[in-house]
User: What shape does this take?
Amino acid sequence: MDWLSWSSAWTVFVVVIDVIIRVAAVFFVPPGRRPTSAMAWLLLIFFFPIPGVLFFLLIGNPRLPKKRRDVQAEVNEFLRDANEHLELGTLLPNPPEWFEPIVKMNRDLGALPLSGDNGAQLISEYQESLDAMAEAIRGAKRYVHVEFYILKADAATEGFFQALEDAVQRGVAVRVLMDHWANLSKPLHRETKERLERMGADWHLLLPLQPLQKKFQRPDLRNHRKLVVVDGDVAFIGSQNLTDPSYNVPKNIRRGLQWMDLMVRLDGPVVRSVDAVFLTDYYSETGTIPEGIDLSEEKPGSDDFDCQVVPSGPGFDNENNLHLFLSLLYAAQDKAIMISPYFVPDEALLRAVAAACARGVQVELFVSEISDQAMVYHAQRSYYEDLLRMGVRIWMYEPPYILHTKALSIDSETAVIGSSNMDMRSFGLNFEVSLLIRGAEFVSQVRRVEDAYREHSRELTLDEWLQQPLRSRALDNLARLTSALQ
Assistant: This one.
């Protein structure tokens, strides 16, 4: 067989494989996906068949491995059982007509019950939050539970780690969870692990990528939660990671980037719900539940806010956080203010925003003027024109700060604070935790934070945005397409 024949045979083989890949993609890619996500994957595979298929095999399945799905089923059952013991406290009277159905929806999707008589205090200063958590740990008598997406022992967190060490020396059980990949890719990972080991903390990696130990799943799944629980009495939850506000990343330091975040200090019955989320993640990685923790023990809070903890992530059948955001946007009558460092909505969220604007609701979005993640930044920018035409006011927080707060407040007495961005990654791929709070005094706290953000932001106008060069728009639209690869 001469070279020409070999060449012809190879060409036929390549063409056949190409056709098989394209046809198979039509059958295997769309099921169970959003139309936008399916279309993005099909376009990638049609334009680049071999690399597209390899990429799809690597990150195309958002589901957990079967072993972890089985564990997650047990976790969800634990949450359902915990519901019976966590519906504590006296609820505020006269809720809006739409409020109780949303609470029921959250609970049916896998969230925890609404509890009353809770104290909730916002902390908007970065170091103040770290110091407040350290102070709470210094008062621990029985246990401390710590769970962060990024957790580092550095100059900013020295007081926190010293408080943990002192707690261990007093005989307090200290349990620590942190996302594997997020910490592995950041400075000081080895030093942090060594310090936790030296102090005697019970620490574990979340979603570990350790194939030699048979621990492996889609590599871009993340546990993005941030929380601390002390003795079941006090909890902290929000957007802030446990690290220096520069994240210790050299390029961030060179650019002078500093993260701005928001945490909530909680006391009262809701603390038990936050603890339940920690315990489910602890069980997912260890297969055990620590002894001596009574989730049914009721302790009154310092105020009367109604609170519901809403966990979400690949382990649930539905996108719990997205359902919550959509429901609140459709319920808003007067005002809806969104704060998200990475705002990459799906079609449903865009429609909810558009509907709110059409009803005459004042809708505002706070984002950062600059970003640390180029692709997400450009994907987010691709939505600005649509949002501005709807009537959304867009506030861009001043450099060199990254506004990392994740919040949604509507009308005068309802807000959500947590770890979840308003983007497709947080809806479909990240394990998140959000806190739904009802209480006019708490929303007043949120409004004061929003006003402070507004003072340090500039408003983006449609006229300004339409002056964007064509090359910038092209890059934004390309990033928007890639953001749908879920």
The radius of gyration is 23 Å.
